[in-house]
Amino acid sequence: MLSRQMAELPTPKPRRILFVCSGNICRSPLAEAIFRDQVRALGLEAQFQVDSAGTHGWHEGERADPRARRVGAAHGVSVDSIARPVRTSDFESFGLILAMDKDHLRELRSRCPAAYRGKIHLMRDFEGGGTDLEVPDPYYEDTSTFERVYEMLQKSCQGLLRALCA
């Protein structure tokens, strides 16, 4: 009887989270993949919908940078998103929008309707090590920088998941 009653309860709406960097091929796809992997490991897939986007459409339709994919794969995380720019509708449809650095934060806030600006935060605000911390852009760097970015994002995603599940 109890299991039938539980089955009839409405399922909570998934929380929608958007990770944003410049071109959506390095940092934000890594963050999306890491967060999705952490959610899956806890069996919470039904509670979250995640995506990533770029403040600019330079790489629209492209796969993530090969270095981001390699670093993710080395940690057992599949980085498989396809680049897209932030759309105006994202500001309404996502409950949380995470910028990788202060430039993204400024850009997003300038394009966002005032009613939704409170949804936009820096990614590393969830890391617990301070405020105004940024995820550096590894695009012009070597694979070791992608590895450091992965480690930062992993910590931030863990903190984000803790905060959202608290």
Describe the protein's architecture and organization.
With 166 residues, the chain is α/β, with parallel strands linked by helices. The chain has a single domain (21-165), classed as Response regulator (Rossmann fold, 3-Layer(aba) Sandwich). Helix content is 41%, strand content 13%. It is built from six helices and four strands. It has helices at residues 2-8, 27-41, 66-74, 90-93, 102-111, 143-165, and strands at 15-21, 48-54, 96-99, 120-122. The protein has a four-stranded parallel β-sheet with strand order 2-1-3-4. Strand 3, helix 5 (102-111) and strand 4 form a beta-alpha-beta unit. Helix 2 (27-41) crosses helix 6 (143-165) and helix 3 crosses helix 6 (143-165). The longest helix is centred in the last third of the chain and has 23 residues, at 143-165. It is globular, with a radius of gyration of 16 Å. 39% of the residues are buried. Mean pLDDT is 90; it is low at 1-11.
